[in-house]
Amino acid sequence: MTNMRFPFRRLPDDLGLMVLKTMEYHEIIAYSLTSKKALSLVQFLGLSLQSAQIKIGWPSIFLDFGDSTIQIKWKEGEYDEEMMSFDDIPINVAVTTRKNSLTFDFVSMEFFPIFEIASFTWSNKGKSIGQWVQHIYSIFRCDWYEATFHIGMIRYDIQSLRTTFPKLNKTVISCFNNKPNEHNIQSAQVILRAFLPYVNDVQMFSVRLQENVSLQHIGMVNLRKLEMHDPPNLNFGDILIWNVEFSIVHTYQFSMRDMNRFFKMWTNSSFPRLRSFKIYGKTIVDWNVLLKGLHLENERRLETEGAERGMEFIIQNCYGTLAEIRVYNDIPTNVSVHFTVSNSR
Amino acid sequence: MSSTEQGTSSAAPAEPTTAPESAAAPEVPESFYYVHGKDKVVHKVSAGALQHSALIHGMISNLGYTEEQAKANPFPFENIDGDILQMVVDWCNQHKGKPTPPEDTNLPKQKEKLFDLVLAVNYLEIKELLTYCCKQVAMMVKGKSPEEIREIWMIPTDAEDEAAEKEAKKRAGKEAAGETAAAAGDAK
C-alpha cells in the first residue's frame, strides 16, 4: 500500500462531495463503510440506482447502474454455508464490478460492447447481513428493489423482514426441497405475509402453500405480476379468481377444459385488470374442447420459427376488447398457451 | 515587505506570440498583475493566466490598474503557502488561453501538498484545477478496501469520532466557564 496519506475529513463537505463524485460506485460504497460520518456524506450524494437484486440464503446483492454493475457477495463461512438469520456476520465480502461500454470497430464499421470486470475482497468488520442490506438501501435512490428468498435453514420473521427491506418491488421465493417440511411451508407464509401488501410482483418456485395464505389469497391481491413455477398444489379454480395484470404459470399439467372456461369467463367480463396470461405444462391439445362456445374473430396457423404446430385465435369480450390466444405445441404433450389482451378494440 | 519578484518565463512565455489573425488589428499589450502568498514572495502573472481564477478575475476586472499600480499593490493571499501559490501560478501560466485537456499531466506532483493545494484552488475558484485535484484525491483510493481507504484518507473510527466530539464539548464547556469567570472578574 502507498505511504501517502491525505486528511480527507479535514476537507470542507462540498470538496469532499466533489471528490466522491469522481469515484466509482464500489469505491464510494467502500468509503461509506469507514464510519458513520462517511456514510452520511455519501448519503448526501443521493446516488441513483436502476435496480437492486438481493438474494437471501447464500446472500448477495446485485446493483445495476445502467452502464455498470456491482455484485456484492457475502461469504458466510469457509465453505460458503447457507445463512441462518439476518444477524449472521459474514467473514468477508467479495465485490465484482463490471463496466459496459461500446467500442467502434473500423474494419466492420460497427459498434461492439466491451466489458471491464474487476474483483476485490473486503474484510467484514462486524456488520451483519441485515445491516449490510440496510446500508446499501440507505445510500441509493433506487426505483426497483427485488429480493429472492431461498427457503431452507434460515428462520424468517415478519418484523425483521420488513425492517431489513423497507422497500421492495418484487419478491421471489424459491424452495428446491422436493418434500417441503413444516419449517419450509411456514417460511414461505411469513415472507408472503410480510410483503404481499407492498410488492408489485411475486414469483414463486415450487412453493407449497397452506390455507391461511393460499394461491387464491395471493392472486386476489392487486399484484402487477404473478409468476408461479411448479406449484405443488395448483388448483386451476384458484387462477380463475386472480386479479393480476400479468401472470405466468409453469405447471405439471393443465386441461383444455380449464383453459376454455378461462377464455369464456374473460369474454363475459371477468379479469378486468388482466393484460397477459401464459401457461406452460403437459396436456393434449384438443381444439374442439379449447374453443368450444367461443366466437372467434380470426384464426390462423402460426408461422413463426419453432411454432410449426401452433395456432393463433382472436376473441372479443362483451366490452369489445380483443385478445389474442396463441397455442404452441411443438413437443408432443408440452403445450403453452399465451393469452394477450389487445389495447385496441 | 520583502518582495522578490519572480518572472514566469520559465514556466510559460509571459508575452504571447503574435497570432497571425491579429496582424491587421493593433496589438494590445498584455497586462500583468502581482500576487503573493504567506511567504510574501511576489509572483508576476498575466491577466490571461489569472482568468482561470474566478476570484482574482472578479477582483481585477474592474480595477483598471496601470502596470505600476498593479506592481505596487500585489494581491495578498495570506492563507496560501508560497510554494502552493507558486504551483497554482505555474498551472495558470501553462494553461493560459488553452482549452483544458480531460486528463491533465501538468498537475503538481508533490502529493504531500495536495491537501493545501485543494484548499487554495478552492479558495481561488479555479474550477478546472479543482476538478483535477479532486480526481487526484480520488485516485489515491482507487480499488482500495474500506480499511485501506481509512488508512490512506486518515479517517477516524466511529469511536474516535465520538471521543473527539466529547473532548470538543468538554473544551467548549471549559472555555465558556472561563469566559463567564472572566466576565465576572471584569464586573467586580
Automatic annotation (TrEMBL), chain A:
Residues 10-43 form the F-box domain. It comes from the Eukaryota. Signal peptide: none annotated. InterPro entries: F-box_dom, F-box_Sdz-33, Zygotic_Embryogenesis-Asso. Residues 215-279 form the Sdz-33 F-box domain. This is Uncharacterized protein. It comes from Caenorhabditis nigoni. The gene is Cnig_chr_III.g11253.
UniProtKB/TrEMBL annotation, chain B:
Residues 1-25, 160-188 are annotated as: Disordered. Keywords: Ubl conjugation pathway. One of its GO terms (biological process) is ubiquitin-dependent protein catabolic process. The keyword rRNA-binding does not apply. It comes from the Eukaryota. SMART domains: Skp1. Pathway: Protein modification; protein ubiquitination. Residues 127-170 form the SKP1 component dimerisation domain. The keyword Protein biosynthesis does not apply. Residues 165-177 have a biased composition (Basic and acidic residues). Residues 8-25, 178-188 have a biased composition (Low complexity). Pfam families: Skp1 (PF01466), Skp1_POZ (PF03931). InterPro entries: SKP1, SKP1-like, SKP1-like_dim_sf, SKP1/BTB/POZ_sf, Skp1_comp_dimer, Skp1_comp_POZ. Residues 38-96 form the SKP1 component POZ domain. Probable essential component of SCF (SKP1-CUL1-F-box protein) E3 ubiquitin-protein ligase complexes, which mediate the ubiquitination and subsequent proteasomal degradation of target proteins. Regulates cell proliferation during embryonic and larval development. Belongs to the SKP1 family. This is Skp1-related protein. The lineage of its organism: Eukaryota, Metazoa, Ecdysozoa, Nematoda, Chromadorea. The gene is Cnig_chr_III.g8742.
